[in-house]
Amino acid sequence: MKEKEYLKGRGAQKNPPNKFLQYLYEARDDFLEYCRLEGEEAESNKTQYLPVFPKTIVNKVTSPDVGMMYSMNPYQGCEHGCIYCYARNTHEFWGYSAGMDFERRILVKEKAAELLEEKLLSKSWKAETIVMSGNTDCYQPAEQKFRITRACLEVFLKYRHPVGIITKNAFILKDLDIIKELNKHRLIGVNISITSLSEKTRRILEPRTASLKKRLRTIKVLSENDIPVNAMLAPIIPGINSHEILKLAKTVSDHGALSFGITVVRLNGAIGQIFTDWIRKTLPDRAERVLHLIEDCHGGKLNDSRFGIRNRGEGKIAQQIRDMANLARKTYFKDKSFPELNKNLFETYKSGQTKLF
């Protein structure tokens, strides 16, 4: 039978088995052939939005490799389809695959804003920056329909609580009004992810994300409004975007970013086989070279799970990446710094003492 057609507009090209499930689903060749002859689709490639109702929304981050203490995610799964995304593995916790399911079955936390307010009003809660999109992008396409991120920002503003945002979508500018209000009190910092200056590379790595031009404009607009922006130049994938570090850093600095972060790609869990399948289909001429370069950064494997090492890698290639990043900071960011957010207003607004004035 003819090999299955490449799924345009998606990152992952397969649905690997969920390691937590007892039974596996497999589309047999005879069924696929029957569908082809009948002119039917074996499965739909359309995105599904599925409501879920968790009891909590704010997560404590225990990893020392992540620069945040708390995160929250209005959506699980992400239609952006970034092939390298570390969050893919979390979709297995919900009973789905880390592959195409991650991009096509988006779990929507409709009560996120209510859960956030409940958390902030709890007696034990003290102000610490909560980062939206610690796992999946809070401004992915689903936000245009549900506007849950907007509702959460309104809660943060109501209680004057600090919030961080990580996104690679220009749709964040639709909320510029409330972001500006938060910034008047030094309550918000934005992280914009830019992985490459090549649109061709962007399209294959991150098929449903905003274009490079729109992301750079987003940095510029936010910066012109004095909103602090950090650029996430991550992940660096040897053999794909590792040669762009200096140009990336200069470009985001020129557009107003105050700092940048960088990590070396690691393909943990199911992501290893998803990425390997993808690169052999998408970049067959350099697939093995790229895979070997990644392995060189992680002791001969596609992933290293050791804290303190897994995001920076080891070996000559990983060291070259760090050296280039250090040079970029000294050259393009020597007089810049990302400010600390304001934690001092929350207790007053939480207790309602402002009503006395």
TrEMBL record:
Statement: the UniProt record of this protein carries the keyword RNA-binding: no
Top-rank taxon: Bacteria
Pfam families, per database record: Radical_SAM
Keyword Iron-sulfur carried by entry: yes
GO function terms (MF aspect): catalytic activity; iron-sulfur cluster binding; metal ion binding
Keyword annotations of the record: Iron, Iron-sulfur, Metal-binding
Domain Radical SAM core: 61-301
PANTHER family in UniProt: SLR0285 PROTEIN
Protein's UniProt name: PA0069 family radical SAM protein
Organism this protein belongs to: Poritiphilus flavus
